Structures are given as structure tokens and as C-alpha cells.
Amino acid sequence: MSSEHARQPVTMREVADAAGVSVATVSHVVNNKEGARIGEDARQRVRDAIHELGYRPNALAKTLSSGTSNFIGLVADAIATTPFAGQIIHGAQDEAWKHGYVLLVANTEGDPAAEDAAITMMLEHQVRGILYSTWFHRAVTVPEALRETDYVLVDCYEAGSTAPAVVPDEVQGGRTATELLIQAGHRTIAFINTTSPSPAQEGRLVGYRSALEAAAIAYDPDLVLNAPSDQEGGYAALDHVLTLDATAVFCHNDRMAMGLYDRAHERGLTIPGDLAVVGFDNQEVIAAHLRPPLTTVALPHYELGAAGIRRLLGDPNPSGKPILIPCPPVIRASIA
């Protein structure tokens, strides 16, 4: 029989749909998992669906006497295609390997159907658990299928729930960026924030204000500007910054700082001689190659991935709140 006419294998999801149960229930029946609380009626429906559909458990499932494997899943919306956020995968992979696990990665590009298929595949492979990650810090709704196994949210969280999560400490990051400028002697510090509502927008502003307060510098709302979080946003904001007599600027991200640099150079200003600048994110393709190289605060993507694995494998978190991962400073040459 040619491959184009070959019958596609029946999946565990199809068995679950036919039996009217969850994928996890089918998995428990197939693997004879001890202690699984499944009624005899549901068990029989699963057996009947297996027989009628011709489902064949894969070889991996047949060998799993414990009901779990040495795989951990990572489902991401786009981080595999973003240069700096791909470090989440790197951190998770390294930490999983330390504990004897192999990482299964699915990049869904935010497609709900692809996401559901990826989670189903991982459940069929009896993963130890799943990390669910987004390429920028935001609130998410946890997919129902994810609740059928242990999971940890990475770089995201579910509002109003105790779902396990690890996220960047945006407040600490904003405070650190501002402190770098204060420690260099600056007292009039502008903050160019993003126009996009997000934990980063809110948290970095809180951190900025906290650093000013700790240094006994009065908060001036006129020194806080909102701009699109891209190069053009930073470029357009500089002229306004200069009307404020600011000697230093904290930019919401490195792309905004790059635009600020462009406009400063056009106006004949030197960095850091005329204006000190700090960015955020540590996108090395930008920050390390500006002239002068940009001092910034890093998003801790590698540590987010590693911490997600540790949380999944049992690191305690009595608070029930998302675990905050510090954002470290990266000192270069943009502060006098």
C-alpha cells in the first residue's frame, strides 16, 4: 500500500472523544496505572473505543510501568523564533537534563489547534509535566488540557488563580535600572515607558518610583513619557525629554533606547556626556553593538526556564504566588 493511502494511526485523543473521557483517563487505562480512580463504566467505554477504533498504544507507553516517562514538555507560543527569549528553552533543557529528563519542545505560534495537539501529544507520551511559556510576560488562560498533568507557567501567569508560575521581577528590574542612574549622580531622570498595558509597563514604573523615593528624589510625573515600544518610539521621545532638562533616561526596552541614540546623534549630543541612558531586556544584538554599548537590565530568560523545571519537579512555593526571578544589570558604557 502506498504511503498516501496508508491509514493514519488512531490517537489517544480520538479514543478519549469516542469514550467521552479525558486523554488522561485513556492513558491511565492503557497503562494500567495503579491507584487511578476510574469507574468501571468509564474503563469499559475506553476498552470498547480502543477495540472499535483499532487503537494501538505506542511502544513507549507499553514500557511505562510507572505511568510517567523521562520527558518534560515545553509548549511555547513563539519563543523558539525570538532570538533572546529562546534562552527559556536553553535554561529548561539544561535543568531538565541535570535531573535525568529530556525536553520535548512544541512551538505553536499562538495557534490554539496546534497548542491542543501539542499538549495531547505530550500527554500521550506520559510526560512528567509541562512548562507553558509565552515570549513576553503577560496574563494567560490556562488551556483545559494542561490541567490533566502537572504544569508550570513560564514568563506568564493566570490572573486570580494559584496556578504555579515563574515570571520576571519587573518591579526590581525597574528599580535597578533607575538606581544605576542615581548612583552615577543623576537627579533628573526621565522614564520612557511603553504605551502597551502589561506587567512590564506597570512594574517598571513602580520600580522607577521606588528607586526615586529611596534616594529622596521627588517623583515628577512630567518626567514619565509613554511611547510605542520600538525604535521609532524612542526616536520621537527624545525631543520631549530634552525640554525637561533631564540628564538621564531610563528606556522601557533596548529598542526604544536604540531610537533615542539615533535622534541624539542627529542633534549632536553625546552619550553619556550629554545624556546617560539605560535600557531594558539586554537584547545583545542591539545593546552590545550600539555606540557606546548600552547599559541595560536583562530579562532572565535562561533562569526562567531553569526555575520552571525546578518548580515542576517539586521546589516548594508556599506563597501560592508567581515566583519572581531577578532581572540583573548589564553594565556597559552609556552611563557617565
Automatic annotation (TrEMBL):
Transmembrane segments: none annotated. SMART domains: HTH_LACI. One of its GO terms (molecular function) is DNA-binding transcription factor activity. PROSITE patterns: HTH_LACI_1 (PS00356), HTH_LACI_2 (PS50932). Residues 10-66 form the HTH lacI-type domain. The keyword Transcription regulation applies. Gene3D superfamilies: 3.40.50.2300, lambda repressor-like DNA-binding domains. It comes from the Bacteria. The keyword Transcription applies. InterPro entries: HTH_LacI, LacI/GalR-like_sensor, Lambda_DNA-bd_dom_sf, Peripla_BP_I. Signal peptide: none annotated. Keywords: DNA-binding, Repressor, Transcription, Transcription regulation. It holds the Pfam family Peripla_BP_3. This is LacI family DNA-binding transcriptional regulator. It comes from Subtercola vilae.
